[in-house]
Amino acid sequence: MESGGSIFNAMLQEFDGAARLLGLDQGIWKVLTHPKRQIAVSCPIQMDNGEIEVFTGYRVQYNITLGPAKGGIRYHPNVTLDEVTALAAWMTWKCAVAHVPFGGGKGGIIVDPNRLSRRELEALTRRYIAEIVDAIGPEKDVPAPDVNTNDQIMAWVMDTYSMHVGHTATAVVTGKPIEMGGSLGRREATGRGVMIVTREAAKHLGFDIKGATVAVQGFGNVGSVSADLLAKIGAKIVAVTDWKGGVYNEKGLDIAKMIDYAKQHKTIEGFSGGEPIDNAKLFALDVDVLVPAALENQITGQNAGSIKARVIAEGANGPTTPDAHQILHDRGIFVIPDILANAGGVTTSYFEWVQDRHGLFWEESEVNHRLETKMVEAFHDVLETSIRYKTDLRTAAYIVAISRVATVTKMRGMYA
Prior knowledge:
7-stranded mixed β-sheet, 12 strands, 416 residues, alpha/beta, 46% helix, Rossmann fold
């Protein structure tokens, strides 16, 4: 299954290997490989020029056995129902691995948000939420930011839902501005989780994270925070790429300056702290750690053989195809899978949801401490499972997740 094929089928391949090792009951197998609900909606809005455009939006609730569906909303021209379904499935396993009481959901709109004005973007967001309003809610499905969406868009989501239900419902969405019920530490949480599991992997493999060389693909929220926090614990970030370009410096990059540069220029291309580099060269660098923090299907059967990193920490969702996964496994590369490595985001989203529902908010140090505890526990659960089943971390993460969802599915029984 390579880039360009079904992302959902890629997820199923990962699922099947773990389910076989686990000896999963065939009936439960069928339940866990079918999405509970797939919603497609048309979102007509009036553009600034007076014309009406109709955009297509999706919301998939893959599984809600452990709790309300949880997952982001992405705005991208390449959004498909297949992609959203796969991402909703990954969210199911991610929540189960992180041991948070959520199921998996995901949403998306087929749109290039960079071509919309702020008013058009708000109108589209509100119309999309109005179309799916009966399907979401604090006890049903809790959206969050994803690719090309942010805290302002989540504020519009919360307000639209609140207008429909007739009261302010902060817990309907996470990733909101702090002023309206967002959690301190949420923006950095995914990158912080990547840093924590990378540090734990270095301990397990017996190398010092201080001075370890790191290459990061993607310099959005996840990539920039991962790079920044890894640098702060002593790692040396030698290469970074983003959507437009990249920079390499074997002596290490100044990540704080790079973050400032990216804020000003919307890219790191042209940053003066090193020489230009592209993704192909970045993946082939002889580094201790590689962090793919961009989009899906970046590590494929074509480039997996050239990767020299000892550890890959998947900051992005689904960055490695199943073919590539097998190549990396055969070559002994220690891959921390996406459903574990980037679970910091959903874990802190869970903390935000809890705080909203209680109306009691925590200090950032408490949020980070709770995240540290959860991520370390999740990493060691998966590591111990991989040792017990003599398998790689990706399969082990699925075994942990599937086992938790399957156990509760059996306990709840079949409603008929």
